[in-house]
Each structure stands twice: as C-alpha cells, then as structure tokens.
Amino acid sequence: MPPELAAPTRPARLLWRDMPSHWRTGLLRWAVAALLIVAAFLHDWAAMARQWWDISTYNHIVLIPPILGWLVWQRRSELAKLAPMCWWPGLIPMAGAAFLWLLGALSGLDLARQAGAVAMLGATVPLLLGPRVATGLCFPLCYMAFLIPVGEELVEVLQTITARITVALTHFSGIPAAVDGVFIDTPAGLFEVAEACSGVKFLIAMVAFGTLTANLCFLAWSRRAAMVLACLLVPILANGVRAWGTIYAAQIVGVEKAAGIDHIVYGWVFFALVLALVLAGAWRFFDRPPGEPMIDAAALARSPVLARLERARISPAAALASLGVLLVAAMSWAHHGATLSAPLPRHIALPEVPGWTRADYTPEIWWEPRAEGADHRLLGRYADWQGGTVDVFVALYARQGEGREAGGFGQGALTPGTQWSWQSSGPAFPQGRSERLLGNGKVERLAVTWYRTGKVLTGSNSRLKLAVIGDNLLLRARPTTMLILSSQDRPTARAADAIARFLAASGPTAAWIDRVTKP
C-alpha cells in the first residue's frame, strides 16, 4: 500500500498553526483593513444591523453573515493552495466603493452609504489578497450584496401587482369585486393590499435563498438563471394567491377571522410551503456532484489571464497606506459637503393667487405632510368661486442630509402611521409626482409633489438626489423646496380639476416656488 494512503487523513490547513506563513500574514493584513473599514463606517454598519433586527422585511439578513463565513469555509482547502499578494488594481474597486459611499453621504441616501460600506469591505480582498484569491471568492464577495437592506422601494409596485392578481383570481372564483388602486371591494367588505401585504419581504428573502441554491446545487449557468428567476416570479404569484385566499375565506367566515388566519398562515406556513415547492421542483435538475469542490485552485493557478494580472503587485505598506488615504479623502469630502448651508429668508408666506382666496384649513380627515428637518413649513388652503379647494404645503431646507431629506422615506404627502393609505398613482401633472390617497377607507385625496433645487424642478426623488449630489460634490450650497398641492375628491368637484385650475392661475410652478421662498 502506498504510504500516502496508509497515513491517517487530516483536514488540510484548518488551524492557524497549519497555515503557511504567507497566508497567516495575508489574513492578518486583511483583518486589519477590515477592522479599519468597519470602525471608520461604524455608523452605517450599525444602521444596517438595526434594520436587520428591527424591520421584519430584513430579518432574514441576520443569516447572511454566517452564510458568508460558511461559503468561505467551503473553499478553504482550495484557497490554501493559492498565494495571497497585494495588488494595486484592487484600489480601483475600492475607490469606486468609497465614491459610492460619498454620494450617499452627500445626498443623505442611506442605501448608497450602506452599499458603499459593504462594497469597501469586499474590495479589500482583491487589494490585499490578490486576483487569484478574489476570483476564488467571487461568489461570496458578490453574495455580500444581500447584506444591504434594499427592497422597500418595490413596495408600491408589488402592491399594485398583487392587487391585480388578486382581483383577477377573485373574479375567476365567481366573487364580484371592484378594484380601485390597491383597494378591493367585495360583498364581505373592503380589502386593502397594504404595504405589509405587498410580499416584498417574501420576495427579497426568496431571491437571496435562490441565489445561494443556484451556486450550491447547479453547475450549468442556464439552470442557475432558471432557479433565480423562479425565486423571483413564484413569490409574486404566490402572494397574489395568498391575498385571494384571504378574500375568498372572508366571504365564508368573515373579514376578522380571515385576516387572523392570513397572518398565521402567511407568517408560519405559507413561506415554508412555497419554499418547499420551489425546492421540490428544482431537485431533479441539481447537477453539482456531491463532494465537488466549490472552486478549482489548480485551474486558477494555471490561468494565464490571472498570471498577467498578478504582475501588478504592490507592497503591503503601500496598499494599506493607499487604502487609508482613500478613506480619509472620502470622509473629509463628505464632512465638508455636510456643512454646506444655503441662505434662507427669515420668514416665508403663501402668496396671493388670482381667482383664489385663502380659506380655513379644516380637512375632513387631518392631512399634514411630514418634512423632518425642514427650516420652514407652510400649510394652508385656497378656495375658488367654483367650490374647489386646494391645500398647499411648502417645506424649505437650507441643505439636504441625514434627517433632513425632502424625498426621504416617510416624508411628503403620505405619512406612515396615519389614517391615510397609498391608493394608486394619480393623473399626470407636468414635472410632478401624482398620488391618490385614501383616508379611513372612504375619503379620497389627490396629492401632487414637486421638488425645487437650483434650476431643477422635478417630482422624482432620484432626480432630486442627483441634483443635490452634484451641488455637494462641487461644494455649492443651494436650498431645496418641497411643494405639495392636494385636494379631496368630492361628488361635485374633482380633485384633479381643482389642482389644474390652481396651477393655471398661479403661473409656472418653478417661478411660483421661487416667489414663495425667495430670501
């Protein structure tokens, strides 16, 4: 018997003392850089951790860090055959990640800040361990994207899709139903496809699971893509079926019992059942042999492309120093941009509008937009001789940033936790964002929002963010204004008509905003 077969087997390089000295040095170097990045951007990492723990949509992310550790552990034996090195082109993704964080810091967009912090941590691998190791860790590095709490932006779209699927199934099952945005009226009562019913947390958890399964269980890229696509489509369709099941059950047992059953089933049973069905459907197509290494170190070592890339070496001291310079530059720029503040008038007032008079603000259901951090706020009502009323809300900001974002979540026309719910998109108004709201399931309100900064007039939060980012990058201080025109629908007066008449009387929107907020 060959002596190598007779020798007792031992896990390769599992312990620190078993590692080659170059790997011990490389890992220590990487650990120092990783701790430096986490410490420098601790605010962003702490904010992400709070979202993982406190927001049900992101509770599944608490499993991602141990999954990442396990993915690296799977590759440990093959990685040990490679030689880590410092690689100066790794500064390019590091600089890109730092710039992404800077854009988020300058615009107050937490998503960009958090994505940049995660990307910087991932970019330490090619910089400090080299292109071969980074290639071997390609999937875990990409899977780090699931650490970022993203998905809430899809809520309104998913609400609308779920409502359409639900009403189609309701009609198919013979139940009469009328849909108005995300509200479905049936003989048993009025149902709302609320934010919690949009299925967004189910969707993003399924996509994270599907991506992991695609890597672990499949080799063919076509099968991997099919698995991820299934985990994207199935939860959307399944959520529509769940919502229909609630409506169908309500026709038999009543709304309250059906809602209670829905919360229990959806929270504890439905997700597991759909997950099991997707796995059962994919099982027969698994093509990764048991025990197959997740990476091939020999192929990575032979790669001529990686050999050419490895020529761009850099000393460890230069790599760490360059990393430090990038971090200091990004944080200094962000700090300087955050201190910019535009001059504002001491007082602002709503101007006269031809054909319209100021009226007491006495809404049937209290409506007041949120504008946290605004330096000035105005809320008033105008009425015209045709019986129309338009509520005007103006918020003026000396600067945009964390805690004072005109387009931030929960800011603007729809304030979370109030009697108002988002119903659907409203009729188009030039350069504005139009939304229909429903109060207490009976009062309909139309709200149209504009943002004004510099020469930009837009209803798009993204367009506003880009304008603010551009100003802050150039260290240029400009005020930002949020204008919301709103009106209730009444049997004798349509809200859209009242707002259109008001806009025609007040003149160009940009000039009207500038007149209200001029110093």
Describe the structure.
This protein has 519 residues and is α+β, with helices and mostly antiparallel strands. It folds into 3 domains: 11-148 and 303-338, no CATH class; 153-283, no CATH class; 356-517. Helix content is 52%, strand content 13%. It contains 19 helices and 11 strands. Helix 3 crosses helix 7 (110-129) and helix 6 (91-107) runs parallel beside helix 16. The longest helix is centred in the middle third of the chain and has 33 residues, at 221-253. GO terms for molecular function: peptidase activity. Residues 323-509 form the Methanolan biosynthesis EpsI domain. This is Methanolan biosynthesis EpsI domain-containing protein.
Brief summary:
This protein is of the alpha+beta class and 519 residues long. The protein folds into three domains: 11-148 and 303-338, no CATH class; 153-283, no CATH class; 356-517.
Chain-wise SSE layout:
Blueprint: H1 3-6, H2 21-40, H3 42-54, H4 64-74, H5 76-79, H6 91-107, H7 110-129, H8 131-136, H9 138-143, H10 155-172, E1 178-180, E2 183-186, E3 189-192, H11 200-217, H12 221-253, H13 255-283, H14 297-302, H15 304-309, H16 316-338, E4 356-359, E5 376-384, E6 389-397, E7 420-425, E8 433-439, E9 443-453, E10 456-458, H17 461-473, E11 480-488, H18 495-506, H19 509-517
Antiparallel strand pairs: 1-2, 2-3, 4-5, 5-6, 6-11, 7-8, 8-9, 9-10, 9-11
Helix pairs in contact: 2-7, 2-16, 3-7, 6-7, 6-16, 6-17, 10-12, 11-12, 12-13
